[in-house]
Design a protein that fits this description.
By secondary structure, the chain is an alpha+beta fold. The protein has 2 helices and 5 strands; from the N terminus they run αβββββα. A hairpin with a 3-residue loop joins strand 2 and strand 3.
């Protein structure tokens, strides 16, 4: 849309007062606002459609028993370094967070940091590790019995020597 001159009537040779120029400008602005809104709504709808295509549908979400690769946070600067770790099996999920059994033990990760992987073969150590993790007993809740903790010694405390 071509931008019109702010001084209406310049082509006809009539003299435009500042008040009349302001009034003409506001009229054109009032006519332009609905066009801008319509164009922005179309663009936002297009962006939403593109975004929805990239987001996993809820029915395709990761479930308990699925195998996943986890994004690695170490050695990201090397181009020949693996970017993921795993595969690990999902032990528990609430739809957003995943509990997996990794090399460092059982841990909870954000579901955005996991990618579905194919199921590993039966002889794979990751398979045996994940199956063993299914037999991990759950911790007692603090409501049923208080948990007692004994410290052997403290290392690196932040208090004075005495």
């Amino acid at each position: 849309m071509a931008i019109k001159r702010l001084t209406a009537g310049a082509d006809t040779g009539e003299i435009v007062t500042p008040g009349r120029a302001k009034e003409n400008f506001l009229q054109r602005l009032d006519a332009l606002i609905p066009l801008v809104r319509e164009t922005m709504e179309k663009a936002q709808a297009r962006y939403k459609r593109a975004s929805d295509k990239r987001v996993q549908a809820l029915s395709e979400a990761l479930r308990v028993g699925d195998w996943v690769f986890v994004k690695s946070r170490e050695n990201q600067e090397g181009k020949l370094v693996f970017k993921t770790l795993g595969p690990y099996q999902i032990l528990k999920t609430d739809g957003r967070r995943l509990t997996i059994e990794s090399d460092n033990g059982i841990r909870t990760i954000n579901g955005n940091h996991a990618t579905r992987s194919p199921e590993p073969p039966e002889g794979d150590p990751a398979w045996a590790r994940a199956l063993a993790a299914w037999q991990v007993p759950s911790l007692p809740s603090s409501g049923s019995k208080p948990i007692e903790v004994v410290f052997d010694h403290l290392v690196g405390q932040g208090y004075a020597e005495h």
